[in-house]
Amino acid sequence: MTDCARQGSLARPGKALWMGWIVFVMVLAGGLAQGPTGSAPFTLTAASCPRIADPKLTNARIDLGLELRPAVGFATVTLTLLQQGASLGQIWTGRVACTPRPHVYSWDGKLAIAPSTVRRWINTGSYEVQFDAVQDGTGLAVTTRRPLHIVRLGITEMAALPSGPASEWQMVYFRRGTVIGTYFYVTPAIHEYFNVAGTGELADLDRNDGTPRPAPAVHTGTASPPMEGTNYEDDAYNYPVCYLAGVAPRLEVRFGATAVSAQTGLGMGAKYPVPGVILRCRMNSSLGPWTSSHVTIAPGAPVVFQGPPLTNGFARTDATLVWSFESSADGGLHWFAVPGALTTQHRFYTVPGVPRFGGASSPQYAGPWVEVVDYAHSWKTALGLETSTPAGLAAVVVKGFGGQIAPITTAIENVRYDTNILGGDGGASHYYDFSHSVQLSRLLDNHANGLFVNCSDCASATAAMLGMLGLQGVQMQRLGGMTLRAIRGIGAPSYTLALWGSTSSHGFSYHHVVTRTAGTSVCDSCLWVDEDGNPNALPGLPGFNCDRPWSGAPTSYSSLLAWAPITFTLEPLPLLQ
Q1: What is the DSSP string of 215-247?
Q2: Roughly how many angstroms between the first and final C-alpha of the chain, as a whole number?
Q3: pLDDT band at residue 408 under the 50/70/90 scheme
Q4: pLDDT for 190-208, tens place per residue?
């Protein structure tokens, strides 16, 4: 029991009227004992006791406060938990000073209920707290009671909802578990967050020993969804979600209905709604406050929350959401906090436009691949580049894909250009099949088709990634034959004027790049051109091809890449295999 300041405030009438009101209320509540004639009456007021509580919430201390008058001397105070008028046991007892300020005992909601001697959380249900005080010296005793309803509050599922047309997408994992090969899995549309009883468990909100079921952590794996052996995890998961940049996310939340008694180990209900009491949920977060139009909550019923707008441009945002609750016993005129809160973690990706895929894509390709967006995030973080614009995101993907730029030491999945001087088989395609399809899942699976890549592999993979990240206008661009100037291929240690081992054969019969502007500028993650002012000699200065102008200047792509003018044709985005 601590000595605490009064919570809230009351308008104070004249002294005589005020004392008369106290005496009247205490007589009605049984909280007044009359001393000798002429002496001040000994009174007890229950200053605080929440109407609704869930002691299993985080930091859910139930404050039981009382005031004793007159403010002199001492009294022995006892707090008792009652159910249907019968005592279940003492919450606390002790001797306190009678002061002008309330005494508050912060209770954890646990009680040793006979015949058990172990303190455990009390069950859900309706109770009363009885406040008793005996005045030192006079033996005068006063008592009063306050209602207390114990409920079980917890979230079992959340579904990400769009905030307008084409503003939210399911994300895709390119493989299932440890299975090697082409396999696509899409995050579930019905609920990206799920936390319910598994096989052999009694209730959704609690473990079988009555302790709260912990919230699932965000699934940070980028290749595969969470698994239970060879099956998908189906009772506890927390997937990342993807929104259009700048959109305010929306979450449809449902609350659990079943819990486990810590006293008996048996199942029990959440025990709300409570007659005559409205219960609502509030949500704040590291992103800012969220709003909801729902006034009440009930087990299993959906409640939609809308958050503040997410960042503009491409980004990965990790957020902490804090869920709190309030109750009202007067139809919503006054609200009081339910002690404690819930905390969940979430990951939001934002893309600058609607994800695009080659051809008539099936629904499984509707959203970006987790591996791709997380690659882009890691490259953005490492390079320190701005991604609030499509051009910035394109630069991140082109530079990150090719790598070998501090601090990204290797190309994506450690691939290297397929030339015989690097140990390859002479420029063959390993992931692109020339029917406008790319085996991106094989490339992302630790270069499952082999270490070496050629220009078509790089261009098709880069185009597919830029399209699914929401960049518009992305196409592949096939260039005709050419004699090369100094270049550095992906994964190569240095610039060269003899790509195939001889200066006389230093050229391409064709070359694939990517364009976002129908050929007026190009992105090339396969090679660097030489920007040292003399592109016909070594050693070469890295010239990254991130939306580099195709022609019209000495530093244009066609000028730095080859000796003579180059022809080109435009091709569509590749299909995904």
Answers
A1: PPPP---SSS--EETTEE--SEEE--EEEETT-
A2: 67
A3: very high
A4: 999 999 999 999 999 999 9
The H or E element containing residue 467 is: helix 455-468
Residues 6 or more apart in contact with residue 537 via CB below 8 angstroms: 486, 497
* 571 phi/psi in degrees, rounded to 5: -130, 155
Residues 248, 307 contacting (CB under 8 angstroms): yes
Identity of the amino acid at 22:
I
- DSSP lists the bridge partners of residue 319 as 346
Residue 98 contacts residue 42 (beta carbons within 8 Å)? no
How many domains does the chain fold into? Answer: 3
Contacts of 353 (CB under 8 A, 6+ apart): 244, 390, 470, 471, 472
Same domain, 115 and 250: no
**Helix 390-402 vs helix 370-383: angle between axes, to the nearest 10 degrees?**
90
Looking up tokens 């998961």 gives 237
Q: Check whether residue 536 and residue 555 sit in a common domain.
A: yes
Shared domain for 225 and 299, answered yes or no, is yes
Q: Which domain holds residue 93?
A: 2-150
Structure-token match 């630790």, residue found = 446
Q: How many H-runs (helices) and E-runs (strands) does the chain carry?
A: 6, 40
> Above 70 in pLDDT, residue 28?
no
- The answer to whether residues 181 and 103 belong to one domain is no
Cα distances from 406 to residues 338, 382, 411, in angstroms, run 52, 8, 12
pLDDT averaged over the chain?
91
Distances (CA, A) of 96 to 6, 49, 76, 314, 503: 16, 18, 6, 60, 96
Count of residues for the chain? Answer: 577
Q: How many angstroms separate the Cα of 12 from the Cα of each of 43, 217, 268? A: 18, 51, 45
Residue 208 CA to residue 236 CA, distance in Å, equals: 16
User: Residue 106 maps to which CATH number?
Assistant: 2.60.40.1930
Q: Tell me how far apart the alpha carbons of residues 408 and 378 are, in angstroms, rounded to a whole number.
A: 10
* Nearest CA among 364, 406, 361 for reference residue 382: 406
In the chain, what are the helix, strand and coil shares in percent, each to the nearest 5? 15, 35, 50
Structure confidence by residue, pLDDT tens digits, 513-526: 999 999 999 999 99
Domain boundary (316, 351, 386) is at 351
